[in-house]
Amino acid sequence: MSGAGSTEPAGVSGVGSTEAQESAAAVTISGLEKTFAKGGTTALVDIELELRPGEFVSLIGPSGCGKSTLLRIIGDLVEPTRGTVHVGGKTAHQARLDRDYGIVFQDAVLYDWRTVGRNIELPLEMLGWDRKRRQERMREMVELVELSGFEKNHPWQLSGGMQQRVSIARALSFSPPLLLMDEPFGALDEMTRERLNGELLRIWDGTASTIVFVTHSIAEAVFLSTRVVVMSPRPGRIQGIVDIDLPQPRTQATREQTRYAELIREVRRLLRLGGGLDVAEDHVEQTLIVAEEGL
Ligand code: ADP
Ligand code: MG
After folding, report:
1. Total structural domains in the chain?
2. Which one of 33, 38, 41, 238 would you pick to mutate in the ligand 1 pocket, going by the greatest count of ligand atoms within 8 A of its CB?
3. Domain span at residue 268?
4. 281 CA → ligand 1 middle, Å
């Protein structure tokens, strides 16, 4: 993966009147289809989806159902075969030019010649923040992802999990209007993952960014989201959308609620309906629920 595909810093918003942008949906996807020329795989069909500003939406579905492809189309990193994507009332392409996206991939995409601190500062540099403000923000982010003391290290001196935390800190540093996250916590241990889930929600609450989050963990999707989009196996379609009506803010206590378990079952039901129930079987919590249900 090249550096060009890494976290994109936000920009001063560009096209259209302020009024039009305020009333615009955060993301509107219409009639979307994707067939890759190479291999002829149809990855996505009939995708219709509208996200409201400030939503936290997770995409969940079996491996290969097109989650990453959909995220990349929203981020203007992959061209759709048919259909349109608008972000804040602009084309996805314009939104990318305006730096409206923060992107976190499965694997951290960092610049090896820059220190950890200067990787995190990169989007802020591009936005023209002065040095003092940049460094203050960088230190805040480093603390948040528990990497204080590593600011002057280079990415290649860190473990994979630590690198991913740098990439998350960088994507969150400028509070982008739209944050696209592709299984960002997949490689982290369970405790770090739960802590970063909490931190992500806290930051999201403070910024009102819209988040599109790809995960293969049903529990993670339900814990984090305002809505969970369940996809069918390839070619990916939207099998159903579950409103996650758990109270905010989500805390450890959320995981103990009956409603939380009910919503997890509902997501599982939709996955089963689509024939895509091969996700997250390694997740302890899921394994327990499977045992409970006698599946
Ligand atoms: P997911 O993220 O849900 O696991 P992907 O979006 O990565 O799924 O892939 C969906 C399907 O599209 C898979 O069959 C994959 O092999 C195919 N695919 C993804 N990217 C490409 C590409 N660049 N060229 C050809 N086929 C691709
Ligand atoms: Mg993927």
Report:
1. 1
2. 41
3. 3-293
4. 21
